[in-house]
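queue> pop job 88
queue> type: inverse folding (structure -> sequence)
queue> payload:
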């Protein structure tokens, strides 16, 4: 561009003698325009250079940020691996502790079984002695009666827990005949219903469960007996009877745990 201006000036000097004033004035205008154009181009060039420098700086900043991110990702990966290893170690420790507890539990169950066998042996021996040496009724104290009732109930319940349902049924029925007004009478009646229920004899179970609120209305077994009665009728496909007994649980024992269970069962019947 500078060469172009110099050539133009030389041309103007050489042609000064033959050019008119009007043409000279036009040349000056063109020269001024070219100068301004040159300056604008120079400014644009400088601006472009600054932009390129800024872009280069931004690129370097992005590169640094990417480097930091990669470092953080690697650091996080290392921490995750370490945490995973610690969890695996902790899981192994918990498993080992669980095995130890299982072993202790098995030992406790074995000891309990031996203890129960000893109790059964002593109870059987006492029954034999009472059979051989029959004492007059007048000499039997109230403590002896309570002890006999307790032994009979525990023996029947032990048979039930072991799945000896025939012996358990006989024991609970005998308890109700001999001790109808003692503390375990309602319990015995309830367990008779459970024996039939466990064997899927729902009609007989419902008959026995209903006797609990009928004969022992103040017993803590009443809510569960009503709930089981409703369950029996569900299994017998007698939905109306089932709703009646489940509703009775909710209405008469709203704060009992059985009320929530009864409500869930009613919801399933809808």
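queue> result:
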């Amino acid at each position: 561009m500078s060469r172009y201006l110099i050539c133009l000036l030389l041309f103007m000097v050489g042609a000064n003698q033959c050019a008119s004033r009007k043409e000279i004035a036009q040349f000056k205008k063109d020269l001024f325009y070219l100068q301004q154009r040159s300056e604008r181009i120079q400014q644009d060039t400088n601006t472009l250079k600054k932009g390129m420098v800024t872009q280069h700086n931004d690129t370097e900043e992005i590169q640094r940020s990417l480097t930091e991110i990669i470092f953080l990702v690697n650091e996080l990966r290392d921490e995750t691996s370490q945490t995973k290893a610690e969890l695996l170690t902790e899981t192994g420790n918990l498993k080992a502790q669980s095995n130890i507890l299982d072993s202790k539990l098995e030992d406790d169950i074995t000891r309990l079984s031996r203890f129960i066998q000893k109790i059964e042996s002593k109870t059987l021996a006492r029954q034999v002695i009472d059979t051989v040496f029959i004492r007059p009724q007048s000499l039997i104290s109230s403590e002896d009666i309570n002890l006999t009732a307790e032994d009979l109930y525990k023996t029947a319940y032990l048979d039930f827990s072991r799945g000896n349902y025939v012996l358990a049924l006989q024991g609970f029925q005998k308890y109700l005949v001999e001790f109808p007004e003692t503390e375990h009478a309602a319990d015995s009646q309830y367990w008779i219903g459970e024996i039939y229920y466990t064997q899927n004899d729902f009609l007989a179970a419902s008959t026995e469960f209903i006797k609990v609120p009928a004969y022992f209305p103040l017993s803590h077994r009443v809510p569960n007996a009503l709930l089981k009665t409703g369950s029996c009728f569900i299994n017998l496909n007698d939905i109306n009877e089932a709703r009646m007994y489940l509703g009775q649980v909710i209405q008469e024992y709203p704060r009992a745990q059985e009320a929530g269970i009864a409500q869930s069962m009613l919801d399933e019947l809808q």
